[in-house]
Amino acid sequence: MDCLQMVFKLLPNWKREAEVKKLVAGYKVHGDPFSTNTRRVLAVLHEKGLSYEPITVKLQTDEHKREPFLSLNPFGQVPVFEDGNVKLYESRAITQYIAYVHSSRGTQLLNLRSHETMATLTMWMEIEAHQFDPPASKLTWEQVIKPIYGLETDQTIVKENEAILEKVLNVYEKRLEESRFLACNSFTLVDLHHLPNIQYLLGTPTKILFEKRTKVRKWVDEITSREAWKMACDQEKSWSNKQRN
C-alpha cells in the first residue's frame, strides 16, 4: 500500500462518502470560461476527471455585480462553486476543496506525505497568491483584457509590474534549480494556480521574462502542456458543450 492509499484509508468516513456522492452528482461552476479565476477551477476539475455543470456569468454586462449573482457571492466576483448546500467563492479555496475531497482520484495535487511537505506546499501557494499574482494579474489586465474592451494599455503600469515580476521569477529560477516543480518534484496546486495568468502572458511581450530564464522556461513549458490545462482552455470542450440547453 503506497502513501496516498494509506492517506485515503485514514480519511474520515464523511470525506469518503462525499467523494463517492460527487462522482455521481457533479458540481456547478458559475463563471466565465475566459476568466483566469474560473480557469483555475476548471483545471482542477479536469485534473481530477470530475463532471460539472458550467453556468455562464456575463462579465461584460456586469451580471456579476447584480442579483441574483450577488446572492451567491456578495463580493461580485467569479467563479462561484456549488456542491449541494456548500457554496464557495475564491478560486484557490475552491481548488483546495476539490483536491482534498478527491485526494485519491486523478492527479495528486496535495502533498500529504508529512506536515513538512504540506507546510511547504501551503507556503508556495501563498507566494503565488501574494507575490506572483498581483503583478501578473495587472499585466494580464493591461495587455490582454483592456484591449478586448477597447481600452488603451498603460505602458507605465506594464513596466512597473514587469520589474516586480522579474524579481519574483528570479526567486523561481533559483528554486527550480533544486526542484522540478515549485513545491516539490511533482505537479501540485502550487503550479496549477500559476497557469491562468502565465497562459495569457505568453501571448504578450511579457513572455520574454519567462523565456529568458532557463529553469522557469522549462517549468512553464511542462505545466502549460498538461492535457487537463489544454481542456480548461478549450471553451467548447470545457464550457459550451457542457451547458444545459
TrEMBL record:
MF-aspect GO terms: glutathione binding; glutathione transferase activity
Domain GST C-terminal: 114-245
Annotated Pfam families: GST_C, GST_N
A Gene Ontology cellular-component term: cytosol
Keyword Translocase (UniProt): no
Reactions accelerated catalytically: RX + glutathione = an S-substituted glutathione + a halide anion + H(+)
Residue ranges of every copy of the GST N-terminal domain listed in the record: 25-106
Annotated localization: Cytoplasm, Cytosol
Presence of keyword Transferase: yes
Keywords from the UniProt entry: Cytoplasm, Detoxification, Transferase
Database matches in PANTHER family: GLUTATHIONE S-TRANSFERASE F4, GLUTATHIONE S-TRANSFERASE RHO
Protein name, as recorded: glutathione transferase
